[in-house]
Amino acid sequence: MFKTKKKMKRNWILLTLLFLLLPACSEKEDPEIPDFPGKEEKTDPSDNKEPEVTPQGPYDLSVLDKPLKDVKVLTSGTWLQNASVMQSFVLPGDGTMLANQLAPTGSKHKISVTRKGITSNSGKTMMRLSFFGHGDNMAHQKDASGNIWLWIGCHGTNAYYERNDVKDVMFTYGQTVARVKFEPGKDVYPEDVQDLWYIPGLKCLSPALDLEARQIAFYGYDASKVYYYYVFNLDDALALAKKEVTLAYPIIRGPSEDYSLDPITYKVKVRNLSELKPVAKLTLTKKVFQGQPYELGSLTNQGFELREGRIYHYYGGGNDSDTSKSSVSVVTVFDFNGKIVDQRRVMAIADLKDLADAGITDYGFMESEGIKIYGDKLYLGYATKKKDDQHRYVTILEYDLPRKAK
After folding, report:
1. Which of 156, 282, 314, 374 holds its CA 20 to 30 A away from the CA of 61?
2. pLDDT, tens digit (0-9, with 9 covering 90-100), for 136-167
3. Confidence (pTM)
C-alpha cells in the first residue's frame, strides 16, 4: 500500500512537470505581435462598425487648384540610393522620411527602402526587400519602442516587359501584404516575414492605414483585370489566425543563380482576409476626367490613402520626356459606397515655367509617386528628373487641408 501511494505521488509529480514543460517542447509558435499604441485585438471579429462621421466635415481638396507659388514644397533636389524613381514614401514625424525604389540593374528583384532626413542628402540608411514586388504603396506604424514597421506588398513575380525591343526584368504583382520592421542593412525575403495578409485571387496587393479609425484598406486586381479597394477593421485583420494557403498565381523568381524562369507554386502562412466581412468593397471602372481618359482602375495608380471613411486615389504619369507638355496628376476621392465625391488635377505641377523657376525640374517631368495624409496635412510625392542628369529626385508637396462645412 505504501509503495503504491509513493508510486502514485511520483507519477503525479512527473505528469505535472511534463504539463509545465509542454509549451517549450511543442512546435515553435510565431512571435507575438509587437506592442503598438492603440487597440490590436477585438473580442468579436465580426463586429465591423461603420466609421464615425467626422464632426468637422470632410477635407476640402480645392487647395489642389493652387499654383506652385502658393504651395509649400516640403522637399526637392535630393535622391534616394539608386537611379530609379521613388515608388512610395512615409513620414514618421521625426524629421525623416522612408521611401522605396527598385534596386539597380542586376538586382531588380529587390526593393531598396531608404531612410533619410526629409531635406537631407546625407546620413542615409537602407534595407532591401527581395522578391516583394514593385513597392506600389507603403504604410507604417511605430511600436511602443519607437521602431518603424512597414506595410508593403509582398510575394511578387518577375513580369518581363519590353523596353526598346529588349526584355527587361520587372518584379511586381505581389499577392500578399507584409508587415516588416525597418532594420538598416538587412535583406528580407518573403520567407522571413512573420505577418502576411492575403485576399485570394488578387494581385498587385498594396495597403493603406487609418490608425485613428482603426481601419486598413487594400488595393488590387483579379485575373480579369477588375480593380478593387477593400476596407477592413484593422483589429479584426490583426486578430485573424494564421493559416497556410496556396497562393492563387505561380511565381517566377528567376533569372538568377538560385532561381530559374520556371513558375513555382508557393504555400504561405497568411492571415486570410476572405474570412472577414469588409467594411467596404469598391470596384473601380475606367472613367474620364475633364474629357481625358484617366483610368482609375489601371496600373497608372500611383498610390492611395485611407482617411475618415474616404479613399484618396492618386493617378499620374510623367510627361514622356516631352518638354512641350505638362505632367498630369489627379486625386480622386471615393466614399465607402464607391461614389466619387471629389476629383481634382494638381495644378501646382501644371506650369512648366513655374517648376523650372523653382529649381524642381527643367524637364517638366513630375511622375506622381505616393500620397499621404497626416493630421490635417496632405502630402503628394513626385519622382522628378532634369535634363542631362541621371538622378531621380524626390519632390514632396505639402498642403494644409481645410474642412468643408457639414
Report:
1. 282
2. 899 999 999 999 999 999 999 998 755 556 56
3. 0.86
